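Quarterly update from the structural biology core.
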Amino acid sequence: MRHQFLLMLMLVGLLLITVACADAPPARVMASQMPAVKRTARKATPTLPAIHVTPAPVARVPAGLVNTLFYHGTENRKEVALSFDDGPDITYTPQILSILSQFNLRATFFNIGQHVLAYPQITRAVYAAGHTIGNHSWNHPLLTALRPLQVLWEMQYTNQVIQQTIGIKPTLMRPPYGAIDRMVHIQIENAGLLPILWNVDSEDWKRQGVTTIVQTTLRETQNGSIILMHDGGGDRSQTVAALPRIIQALEQRGYTIVPMQQLLDHHADAPSNPAATPTVQRTTRLTGD
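Predicted structure, tokenized:
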């Protein structure tokens, strides 16, 4: 009888333990018992490859042009400068380089920092061909809508990426959309840059046809003009097609197409500098630059 009573107590106790375990929350699994999880490390910032290029002339800011907005060169010389914004572009920049090489011309390319980081080999090709690389901000914002430190960051970070890519820091800068006021101008200068605007907009960004681009450019061009075109920022096939016609027409009209540096130097040497205006409140109309 005693044996049966003990057996009964054991069965009841076992039943109570089973019920208690069923109602209790699941026990924590020890970390050592968890299956191994493959961790993906955060991607590091891309390391730019070593720089192997033929040095091109470094743009200099003549003393007479410090604290100025530069729109065009001297009207005393029949010379103009070509400039291209929003590159580098993997498709259109090489085509424009090829055309400029055929005519043995040098131009200025105002590059967007994140595009330089994406296509460093194209940026090096532009520089190796003897063209000037300028700063066009990091990601093409409306600088006048930013705070001063944000504007300075746009300038300095782009400077850094360009310098890592071609080995020299740019000295020329074109604000996106040509939008500039006193605050933006101050931050551009704080970054060690000279703002370069334009007085001939080819309006290639409108993509209204090759003939329209050519006619617009020729109609507006005069002595000392800085001509604005684009090698990036969208479909630039019309720009590529228009460029040879523009070059040939300008030369037929007696213009000499010169590097931006030559336009700067000749303007600084001129008796008067009407384009070297004081820093004033100014914002151009928004375009596709």
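The first strand starts at residue 79 and ends at 87.
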